From TrEMBL:
Native source organism of the sequence: Photobacterium chitinilyticum
InterPro entries, sorted: Cardiolipin_synthase (IPR022924), CL_synthase_A (IPR030840), PLD-like_dom (IPR025202), PLipase_D/transphosphatidylase (IPR001736)
Official protein name in the record: Cardiolipin synthase A
Gene that encodes it: cls
Enzyme Commission (EC) number: 2.7.8.-
Alphabetical UniProt keywords: Cell membrane, Lipid biosynthesis, Lipid metabolism, Membrane, Phospholipid biosynthesis, Phospholipid metabolism, Repeat, Transferase, Transmembrane, Transmembrane helix
Chemical reaction(s) catalysed: 2 a 1,2-diacyl-sn-glycero-3-phospho-(1'-sn-glycerol) = a cardiolipin + glycerol
Alphabetized SMART domains for the sequence: PLDc
Length: 485
């Protein structure tokens, strides 16, 4: 009997080694960023069985068989729709600035989406202003309202948005709402979905989280876009979820969330509507390609209002927003100002920021002083010494949880949208960013960033190096896992 148990033990060890070897080969052959592969290998080797189990659950970008098949079938119809935008008079590549042209070329070649001019942009810099503007536009809607958010949290002005949508549906407006299942869990457990569906509103729960699907689709893959399109004429996008900060995470100890949204009119609205239509079809199988924009030949004054819409996520070209961000940073000649709530940069992004500072570009990164994610906060700190040594300025914002995701290059070109500067946003989630080639709008965003900086504490390298040794050890521990955060 003793020999039987010995044989059983050796067979178990052999099969465990076989599993580890097989998963190791799979990690290596995926040819991802080296840091990501090393982080996963460390987890697999340090945590017996659990590491392998974790990798099989969340280690690879798996959209699920049904959604992947839908995306494959959708590709050509949507590609044809985007291709027809090249015939729009708003497509004026000859008027692009030297910053915008390389980004446009990259996006046209990889996404097939051209930049369009003739837009009107309004930067809305406070949650109350955003929500009141959105409610007013919903009340004026005539035909369609499409909303897509990561988080809808009931309470305050968010409830007024829901009431406005119900009133719109009752007067005959077609209303479609897509919300991420994990981010909007509180909403789906409230009474609002029942009331809204009763009024005729279509509500879709994106990427449902259930134990039965854990091996069919990556569970932490999230729909992180924030898009509102009204009558295919008005669009909103930016960093803000559909929440009233006075009623959202009030006990988290980080203060109220600080966000911005961009209100857009013009041909770019239809592009954002098409991105939302893509997400709707991936989730439901229902197709409703929007009408192409009714483009008019823009005046010389409007030809500078160029917007490049850049979606990313499963089904889109890999790391497209990451590429755009790197391209923007390497093009910078005078200044780079970045605001982000979650700063865990890739190796390439870290080197790009350091190189910019070392060649004399003024680089400023503004992050919250307190973060709602402890892991991200410690991992973020692990990069400070290297960045400060290179001459990057780091500011810790004290006015709440700074959730604005923005990049301003040389005060004349900017990126604004839903993307955090971490691997999750840049590699995994469904995101959208606007590359805006509009000096006036960029200047407004730059002024807002300066307000954030004025309400921040600047980190000095000499003071930062005096932090306790225990802090340094914690930072290094979370740094090892930073490629996975």
């Amino acid at each position: 009997m003793e020999q039987f148990y010995q044989v059983l033990a050796w067979v178990s060890i052999f099969f465990y080694w076989l599993i580890i070897a097989g998963v190791t080969m799979r990690v290596v052959f995926k040819r991802r960023v080296v840091g990501v592969s090393l982080a996963w290998l460390m987890i697999i080797y340090i945590i017996p069985i659990g590491g392998v189990f974790a990798y099989l659950l969340v280690g690879e970008l798996n959209l699920g068989k049904k959604r992947a098949m839908r995306a494959l079938e959708m590709f050509q119809p949507f590609a044809d729709w985007f291709q027809r935008l090249n015939d729009c008079p708003g497509h004026q590549p000859q008027h692009m600035s030297h910053h915008a042209r390389p980004i446009s070329d990259l996006c046209e070649n990889r996404l097939g989406i051209p930049a369009l001019c003739g837009n009107s942009l309004s930067l809305q810099d406070s949650p109350h202003k955003i929500l009141h503007s959105l409610i007013e536009d919903i009340h004026q809607a005539q035909d369609t309202i499409h909303l897509e958010f990561y988080i809808w949290h009931p309470g305050g002005l968010a409830n007024e948005v829901a009431s406005a949508l119900i009133m719109a549906a009752k007067r005959g407006v077609t209303v479609k709402v897509m919300l991420d299942a994990a981010g909007s869990m509180r909403f789906f457990r409230s009474y609002w979905p029942r009331l809204m569906r009763h009024a005729g509103i279509e509500i879709t729960e994106a990427l449902a989280v259930t134990p039965l699907r854990m091996f069919l689709r990556r569970l932490d893959l999230r729909q992180h876009r924030k898009i509102v399109v009204i009558d295919n004429c008005i669009a909103y996008t930016g960093s803000m979820n559909l929440v009233d900060p006075e009623h959202f995470k009030t006990k988290a100890g980080v203060g109220q969330w600080i966000d911005v949204m961009v209100r857009v009119t013009g041909p770019t609205v239809a592009v954002l509507n098409c991105i939302q239509a893509w997400d709707w079809e991936v989730e439901t199988g229902e197709r409703y390609l929007p009408q192409l924009p009714a483009c008019k030949l823009p005046s010389p004054a409007d030809s500078s209002d160029m917007i490049q819409v850049i979606p990313s996520g499963p089904g889109m070209p890999d790391e497209i927003i990451h590429q755009v961000l790197l391209l923007s940073i390497y093009q910078a000649q005078k200044s780079i100002v970045i605001t982000t709530p979650y700063f865990v940069p890739s190796e390439n992004l870290l080197h790009a920021l350091e190189s910019a500072a070392e060649r004399g570009v003024s680089v400023h990164i503004v992050i919250p002083d307190k973060n709602d994610s402890i892991m991200v906060e410690w991992a973020s700190r692990s990069f400070f010494t290297e960045l400060l040594t290179a001459g990057v300025n780091i500011h810790r914002f004290h006015g709440g949880l700074l959730h604005t995701k923005s990049v301003v290059i040389d005060n004349n070109h900017c990126l604004i949208g839903t993307v955090n500067l971490d691997m999750r946003s840049l590699w995994l989630n469904f995101e959208v960013t606007l590359a805006v080639d509009n000096p006036e709008f960029t200047q407004q965003l730059s002024w807002l960033q300066q307000e954030y900086i004025n309400d921040s504490a600047h980190i000095a390298l000499s003071e930062w190096e005096k932090r306790p040794v225990t802090n340094k050890l914690i930072e290094q521990f979370f740094y090892m896992f930073s490629p996975l955060l």
